[in-house]
Amino acid sequence: MQPDQTLSRDEVQWLAEAAAYLERPSLLMRLAGAIGRPLEAVVSLVDKVAPDLVASTVTSALSRALALAVYTLPEAAKAEPVVSTPEQLHQLGTSTSFWHNLSVAMTGLPGGFFGIAGLPVELPVTTTVMLRSIASIAREFGEDLGDAEVRLQCLTVFGFGGPPPQGDGLESTYLTTRIGMQEAVAQAAKVAARATTQELLDMIHRGTAPALVNLIAKIAARFNLAVTEKLMAQSIPVIGAVTAATLNVAFLDHFNRVARYHFGIRRLERKYGAEATQAAYRQQVRIAKGS
């Protein structure tokens, strides 16, 4: 069956909302707002964040999350055929699990007590909880979690929604990042299909599976920025465990929102075709950037 040719007005409006968030995400402002501090107070702490600690912890967390994505995310059959009513598109993926929120709030406690030093304890657990939440959103949008490539798509959400690179002009940061990871996801899925969980982790640790290492590196390059922003907010003196827990909930909410837009765009691509959907999205990017 050939895809429909024209997006509805409401679907175009939804793409405009997606472009507004994915191209200029407000994570740092959301984190600052969550703790009730001016953005400038958070940004002033940038020099106190340890880049080496962030990079090594992010790589470790993503490695374990990759193993989780491939082997232990709950499998699900494809959902019902894509619906066309705008109300359903806007409602999908908005019911974040109470348990996901509670879990990330609890994992924020080490950050409140130990600050940056608590990152190696907190981030792997937080990333795992967020990945499960992302997977539930993917399933709501009709993705088949029985497909290894789809499960790796859940992992790529951590690589979206970062600040736009310098000199990106009118190009879409989201689409550029997504296309840049497309081949890496495909190659990683092939490798992962032939290995056990432990073998997968060993190959990543030893660097003997370039496809897996390459995918993690591509995601980490963007996820590092988000984690650094979180640490900047978390490093304010006497932030306290309760406020750190609030930060983690805001962190989860950010990536849930990125996931909703990512898998919503993929859903529209299944309905209208990738070319038409991405052209409509790029048009909204140009409008948002004033072109």
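(ticket continues) Second input and output from the same batch:
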Amino acid sequence: MKIPCSLTIAGSDPSGGAGIQADLKTFHELQTYGMSVISSITAQNTTGVQDVHHVPVSMIEQQATSIIDDMPIHALKTGMLANVEIMEVVADVVSRMNAPYVMDPVMVAASGDHLISPDSQDYLKNELLALTTMVTPNIPEAEQLTGMPIHSEKDMEKAAITIVKDLGASTALVKGGHLVDEENAVDVFFDGENIALFSSQRVHTKNSHGTGCTLSAAITAYLAKGYSMIPAIELAKKYITQAIRHSLDLGKGSGPTNHWAPRLTHEEVNQK
């Protein structure tokens, strides 16, 4: 029996809502075997990030080599990649595998603060994007990648086209959660030829910690299971919507999404 295997290269979130922890929970819930390479160790919780320690590049490289030398990888994703040296390791890892690569370009914090240095942004845009099967920026990240302001669905379409046509990504999914729309959350996908829109009813909750990690991990899991792009996005969008709708009111800040939400029974949903 072929066991679909998914790899994440990202930072660790000890509170469990984002990063490596969110990725592995998502991989497990979607019935793929999850593996991880930890690129950074953070001290964070639902209120924010208190400290960050970047794993030495040699250790990141050895983690990846240990996996590649022994385990099958059917799809991989990346989250926060803090510097050029780490990105160079990722580029080497991707080049050594024949598997879809989903990039969650973690560049801008919810506060608006930039998380990676200017030279790292340049490397991501000029080198790493061209290796991706799909990149999944939110609106602030898409603005950072393209240099254009995004205030509407049409702007999102222009950004997705720019990311593919000008920056070299194979496909782009620009997420519309930051747009001011009270009814729907619309994501825009461009595959080099066609635009596709993915809409879901907006869920009003403060508990959205780890949504970007979880969505990109869900897409990765479905790609590892052999789904093509559009069905993978559709299923991942359904998964993240359920995870947000039944999010967990934990911590003093923005609580985590609920990775086991699709398994809730009708009775459990009504009790929430």
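Agent notes: The chain has a mean pLDDT of 91. Residues 5-265 form a domain with the UDP-N-acetylmuramoyl-L-alanine:D-glutamate ligase fold (CATH 3.40.1190.20). Closing as not reproducible unless the customer responds.
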